[in-house]
């Protein structure tokens, strides 16, 4: 057998293994979930409580139907993997039709930083979809052409100072900006404008400019890099986002965000549980660095749009929570207790550990947690995505979307950027590239 076939065989075994691993689990858990979700909610209010009198019945809607049409914009470096697992688990439990990438390899990138092309995703025979949950830039026009008008939109963002540090490390931005200090964040924040001509990266294949240090989160949500200094445009755009989005999860207030999401989407408590073990956590020298007041003031001016984005949705979060009434915090405490118990159980359980039963409450019916539930709770994004696309061929080989990190590495090396991995591989075999390597002595 040719050694060239080894990687392909290994990948096939990995995908098949993931599917075989999750297939029996999903079947059992989905059946259990359907039984749990079948209790009568016709007399329940929007927060899941049962009205005690006619006045309460008038004050609250009498029907609460789970929202099964939604878009989760998976932003970069925002802690989105936790929410990514929750959304994929929900889609699997409820057998929702997901619009997903046409290839199984790569980072499950639907499209970034461009609008998805027709050949970039798997089409259903009737072109009907329930949810979108992969990495992509928010594009309202395109999304509304694929999903109905009553679709719910949500995403996740984090404080801009924390986002800068993780982006600096992940994309190797100090090397792009030629900063050689041990604390590149500190060096950068002393004068961000000094590095503007270096921090901007141009993706030539789609003629889009992106800056990993400046308004990265707003960019993922559709705001153009070139308008970084246009305060009025930013205010208008973010005001539209606030109107378009059902809610925005905040990493620093994740539990509050998830309880609010559950209520607004009319989901079950078990739908928004998550493994408390950190995912994709990376260590680097300047991770715990706390910028000075002056440095933060510079960052607020530099990342003005991201700060406006965060401040707007931070205020929106607490306003919507206040509208829920005082029992929101009762549910929050209940959710945190249940999440801690379930997460601890799943991380410590042994083969002979009996299943955990969570009693019913005013916010949920009784449910059981066993080995199958734990495997799904602790799963990562990629295996769940492989299950979602289990019946789909791998599509056009090599046409997986290159993630921004790969194209950033190419820019740092002085190479062109590409949309698809096969284009980059073709370039790396070209005479021009080989000559360049020879001149550089690589």
From TrEMBL:
Cited Pfam families: Gal-3-0_sulfotr (PF06990)
Any one GO BP annotation for this protein: glycolipid biosynthetic process
GO cellular component, one term: Golgi membrane
Keyword Amino-acid biosynthesis: no
TM annotation in the entry: 6-26
GO molecular function: galactosylceramide sulfotransferase activity
Subcellular location: Golgi apparatus membrane
Topology in the lipid bilayer: Single-pass type II membrane protein
InterPro entries for this protein: Gal-3-0_sulfotransfrase (IPR009729), P-loop_NTPase (IPR027417)
Keywords noted in UniProt: Glycoprotein, Golgi apparatus, Membrane, Signal-anchor, Transferase, Transmembrane, Transmembrane helix
Family, as annotated: Belongs to the galactose-3-O-sulfotransferase family.
Name under which the protein is recorded: GAL3ST1 protein
Source organism (scientific name): Branchiostoma lanceolatum
Lineage: Eukaryota, Metazoa, Chordata, Cephalochordata, Leptocardii
Encoding gene (name): GAL3ST1
């Amino acid at each position: 057998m040719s050694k060239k076939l080894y990687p392909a065989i290994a990948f096939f075994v990995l995908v098949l293994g993931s599917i075989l691993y999750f297939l029996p689990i999903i079947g059992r858990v989905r059946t259990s979930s359907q039984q749990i979700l079948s209790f009568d909610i016709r007399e329940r209010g929007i927060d899941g409580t049962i009205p005690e009198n006619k006045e309460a019945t008038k004050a609250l809607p009498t029907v609460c139907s789970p929202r099964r049409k939604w878009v989760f914009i998976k932003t970069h470096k925002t802690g989105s993997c936790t929410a990514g697992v929750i959304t994929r688990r929900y889609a699997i439990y409820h057998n929702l039709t997901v619009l997903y990438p046409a290839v199984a390899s790569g980072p499950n990138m639907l499209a970034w930083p461009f609008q998805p092309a027709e050949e970039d995703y798997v089409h259903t025979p009737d072109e009907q979809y329930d949810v979108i949950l992969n990495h992509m830039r928010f594009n309202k026009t395109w999304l509304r052409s694929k999903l109905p008008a009553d679709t719910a939109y949500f995403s996740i963002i984090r404080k801009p100072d924390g986002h800068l540090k993780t982006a600096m490390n992940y994309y190797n931005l100090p090397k792009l900006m030629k900063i050689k200090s041990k604390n590149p964040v500190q060096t950068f924040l002393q004068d961000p404008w000094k590095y503007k001509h270096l921090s901007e990266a141009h993706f030539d294949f789609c003629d889009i400019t992106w800056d990993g240090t400046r308004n990265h989160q707003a960019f993922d949500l559709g705001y153009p890099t070139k308008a970084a200094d246009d305060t009025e445009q930013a205010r208008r755009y973010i005001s539209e986002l606030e109107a378009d989005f059902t809610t925005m999860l905040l990493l620093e207030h994740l539990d509050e965000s998830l309880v609010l999401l559950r209520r607004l989407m009319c989901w079950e408590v078990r739908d928004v549980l998550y493994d408390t073990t950190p995912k994709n956590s990376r260590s680097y020298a300047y991770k715990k660095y706390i910028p000075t007041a002056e440095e933060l003031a510079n960052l607020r001016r530099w990342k003005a749009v991201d700060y406006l984005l965060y401040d707007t949705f931070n205020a929106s979060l607490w306003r919507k929570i206040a509208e829920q009434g005082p029992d929101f915090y009762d549910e929050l405490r209940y959710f945190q207790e249940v999440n801690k118990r379930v997460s601890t159980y799943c991380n410590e359980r042994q083969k002979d550990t009996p299943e955990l039963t969570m009693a019913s409450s005013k916010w949920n019916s009784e449910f059981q947690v066993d080995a199958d539930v734990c495997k799904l709770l602790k799963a990562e994004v990629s295996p769940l995505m492989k299950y979602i696309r289990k019946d789909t061929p791998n599509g056009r080989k090599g046409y997986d979307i290159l993630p921004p990190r790969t194209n950033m590495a190419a820019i740092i090396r002085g190479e062109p950027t590409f949309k698809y991995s096969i284009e980059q591989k073709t370039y790396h075999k070209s005479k021009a590239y080989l000559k360049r390597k020879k001149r550089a002595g690589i």
